[in-house]
């Protein structure tokens, strides 16, 4: 009797670039998840007040938005691999500055220019560029399913990262290590993962670039300058929908949620991490299918193909 292949059928024919993009997604979201559950604890331990911490996280998210917009709208002209490499360097640099200084002004500069995720979700230029690159190395007939598993890989990585971040700090503090030092270990690990991302991005082939498939550069107009082209109406509608969702999510940033549970209920960092990890996992693993849990994003792909026609970009 043949042994069943645990790899989903749509992923078996992924190219080397496709697997590299899955790996970078997993490592990045793992880093975001691990940092998100200890970030506020770390900043408070450095001597920042709650208001200073809130201001820092707000400026961090605002800076990430500006940096992301600048890099992603130029990626197809300057090079996707180059822009991904720049983003990874900014991620590593921000982590190192956060680990090495207590100066509030330097933290603001690093958080605003660098890539830090207080929420555990995607920030920086990575997602848009990676998805564009992934669409070039995946056949059109399996693209929707591959993107579903790509999304799942990130959700799983966030959950594991949150669990590891809380568990590591709890274990270090049980060994009589100061809390601020235990949090700094996670911050340094975040920077190290940023360096690892940079190294992996250098291994992407030219197939991930926009000109590899023979596409021609369109005339420079305002819409093409922002990377929209003929799809600007669809993008505007989706952007408005995602903006509303992100605005609501901004009221419950994971870093502050973990700190609030600690202040309100005395929940330890380890338990906060377990809660965040379980919450992230349950959001994806909520439908049972075949031999175990299947992510809702993967189940939704047949429905999405029937419901939404393809739009040209």
Please explain how this structure is put together.
This protein is mainly alpha-helical. It contains 14 helices and two strands. Strands 1-2 form a two-stranded antiparallel sheet. Strand 1 (about 285-290) and strand 2 (about 290-295) form a beta hairpin. The longest helix is centred in the middle third of the chain and has 32 residues, at about 145-175. It starts with 15 loop residues before the first helix and ends in a 6-residue tail after the last helix.
What is the structure about, briefly put?
With 313 residues, this protein is mainly α. The protein contains 14 helices and 2 strands; from the N terminus they run αααααααααααααββα.
Please state the structural category. Answer: mainly alpha
Return the average pLDDT rounded to an integer.
Answer: 79
Helix content: 55-70%
Strand content: under 5%
Give the biggest beta sheet. 2 strands, antiparallel
Ends apart, CA distance between termini = 46 Å
Shape: globular
Strand order of the largest sheet: 1-2
Radius of gyration: 20 Å
How many E-type strands? 2
List the helices and strands in order.
HHHHHHHHHHHHHEEH
Low-pLDDT residue intervals, each spanning 5 or more residues = 212-220, 277-313
Number of helical segments with 4 or more residues: 14
Q: Topology of this structure?
A:
Elements (H helix, E strand, L loop, with lengths): L15 H21 L2 H7 L4 H23 L2 H4 L1 H21 L3 H10 L12 H12 L5 H32 L4 H23 L20 H4 L6 H18 L4 H12 L3 H16 L2 E3 L2 E3 L1 H12 L6
Antiparallel strand pairs: 1-2
């Amino acid at each position: 009797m043949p042994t069943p292949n645990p790899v989903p059928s749509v992923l078996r024919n992924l190219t080397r670039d496709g697997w590299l993009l899955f790996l970078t997604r997993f490592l990045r979201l793992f880093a975001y998840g691990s940092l998100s559950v200890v970030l506020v604890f770390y900043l408070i331990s450095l001597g920042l007040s709650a208001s200073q911490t809130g201001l820092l996280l707000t400026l961090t998210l605002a800076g990430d938005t500006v940096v992301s917009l600048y890099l992603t709208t130029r990626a197809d002209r300057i090079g996707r691999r180059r822009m991904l490499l720049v983003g990874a360097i900014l991620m590593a640099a921000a982590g190192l500055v956060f680990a090495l200084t207590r100066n509030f002004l330097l933290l603001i500069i690093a958080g605003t220019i660098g890539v830090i995720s207080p929420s555990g979700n995607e920030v920086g230029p990575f997602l848009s560029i990676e998805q564009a690159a992934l669409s070039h190395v995946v056949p059109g007939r399996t693209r929707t399913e591959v993107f579903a598993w790509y999304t799942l890989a990130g959700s799983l990585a966030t959950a594991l990262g949150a669990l590891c971040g809380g568990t590591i700090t709890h274990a270090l503090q049980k060994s009589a290590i100061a809390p601020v030092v235990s949090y700094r270990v996670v911050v340094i690990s975040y920077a190290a993962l940023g360096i690892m991302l940079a190294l992996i991005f250098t291994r992407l082939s030219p197939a991930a670039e926009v000109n590899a498939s023979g596409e021609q550069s369109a005339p420079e107009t305002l819409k093409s300058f922002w990377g929209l082209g003929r799809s600007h109406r669809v993008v505007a509608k989706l952007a408005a929908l995602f903006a509303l969702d992100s605005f609501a999510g901004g009221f419950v940033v994971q870093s502050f949620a973990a700190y609030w549970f600690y202040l309100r209920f005395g929940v330890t960092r380890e338990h906060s991490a377990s809660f965040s990890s379980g919450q992230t996992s349950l959001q994806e693993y909520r439908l049972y299918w075949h031999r175990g849990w299947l992510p809702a994003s993967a189940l939704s792909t047949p429905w999405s193909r029937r419901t939404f026609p393809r739009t040209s970009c």
